[in-house]
């Protein structure tokens, strides 16, 4: 009865512990501009709270067994009364809690603002949930329970289950507010179960202590079998503790770095968050199972094989298609985390030292998150933490292969087997350490912030702005050459066509969500007014320092720094003649800008005869079905365009043009450009609709 109650409580608390993570991240994503770094900051918060929870559990073990359940029960009741759980959605997405730190809607210190907002909304409930697994395992061990590490595996199974259930079953069926309400009800259940466990432990503490379990139970069942015995039971000296810490830190750093790598080129959405996190938890399930599912030599070789493939730009890097790169990156991360956590598990202590063991693991996890969120943006001007962490893991894997006396890959006199792991490790090291020193033509600017990496490069004939891996604008290098429209806005593009059709109206009011280098200002005329909304301050700096479109435009230019949707929500109706949506970071899609609620906002800011144009060029996603669904939902007339590069410095561009049915423009068309009129309501047309509560990205993959 007691073991079942403890196991059930651990399961429920662990399930809720990880269910709130994508929920909170999804709630905060539009508040902070849809940046992939939002999820990294959220993970840092959860890792720090997990550390505090494990520290609390560890400190409680120093108290008498009678006081431990009393204090834990009081903390659980305080968390239940922390705030009205039904207000969670508003608390996470509503006005800034501390305006001095966050500003009106664009924080000066976004990571700190996210940590603060999460702290005052779910901080104490999350803390209590994080203490449950290690504390109940300790209480069960003190009461004569067997195999406490199996409960650690159980907690990771529950956490893994919540991450899999969320995108598959919960998110498609429930809105964000409903899901937060479900989580609040689950928190109430978890509190009642925890109080029951505390009551049983308090009563058991007053009874005679149970007999100690046989010594063999201090290690995993079957540990003595096989060629790779665990290193369990050797104490927790400083060398062993250091290895715990380094393995946990590296695993956490790889989790955040790989997640950032994937989300930067697709979208920052919960599904792409939970996949790496689920694999991360699965590695703990495997290595702490009884017996462990881990073979050092095979896993280390897998690290080198997959790491070498992933490090190649054509397979796992910037030149690969998403359909290949995403699975390969996920597989590489999984094997690397499996290896790191497997080596940690082999050195785990007996049950009496498990709270200290968990505390060290949580310290490493928090340090890894802090390195990605705080240290890396200061030390690196690009995302170098991922290749460097991969290189370090590859060296550790090579050492395990060469040091293991049972490994067939050890250097031996006359043997060549050791050359394979050495060659694979060399490939990883070369692609990790060489690219930071390769020239990008003439590098005029490279800066990294919360919203991404911005580079300005100069070649023999042009100056280019690159956001992530995608070119977001250019100009002729010679300032004396014509500063006409280039890139995606050149002759024959939808922008060129729409502005020609609008020209007879006289002075125009044009709104643009996304600045780039300000290329569209090349179309400006005297009397026009162009209002740009740009999320990333570094983009504004680059456009004004290195490109001349804004400075040379005869129109009135207004640049508003902040998330375009949030800015538009705060403004009165603008009566735009034309509103252009071109707010992508690298190839990543800001989903909150492409929902039906966002399109209603855009329509409110347009004149009745105004035009909405959305840039949908993308390497990985086919956005046409989404555009069709939005047009059908809101009664727009839709034209999809595809224009080749028709002039120097121009690129192929794809746009969706939305017009009101009663105010249609006759759009001039270049003979080499394709303008397709789409009936959004036609039977058989492929339609997809996103809302603020749900967005299906996978259906759009090419």
Q: Would you mind describing this structure in some detail?
A:
With 702 residues, this protein is of the alpha/beta class. 51% of the residues lie in helices and 11% in strands. The protein has helices at residues 2-28, 37-60, 67-80, 88-93, 99-102, 110-142, 148-170, 176-205, 238-265, 270-287, 296-311, 322-346, 354-379, 385-403, 419-433, 494-502, 537-546, 549-552, 564-570, 596-605, 624-634; strands at 442-449, 452-458, 462-467, 470-476, 509-513, 529-534, 556-561, 576-581, 606-615, 637-643, 653-659, 674-678. The longest helix is centred in the N-terminal third of the chain and has 33 residues, at 110-142. It starts with a helix and ends in a 24-residue tail after the last strand. The relative contact order is 0.09.
Largest sheet: 8 strands, mixed
CATH architecture label name of the largest domain? 3-Layer(aba) Sandwich
Number of strands: 12
Strand share of the residues? 5-15%
State the domain count: 3
Shape: globular
Spans where pLDDT lies below 50 across 5 or more residues: 95-106, 210-229
Task: Trace the largest sheet across and list its strands.
Answer: 7-6-5-8-9-11-10-12
Tell me which oligomeric state these chains represent: single chain
Q: State the helix count.
A: 21
- The CA-CA distance between the termini, in Å, is 52 Å
Roughly how many Å is the radius of gyration?
Answer: 28 Å
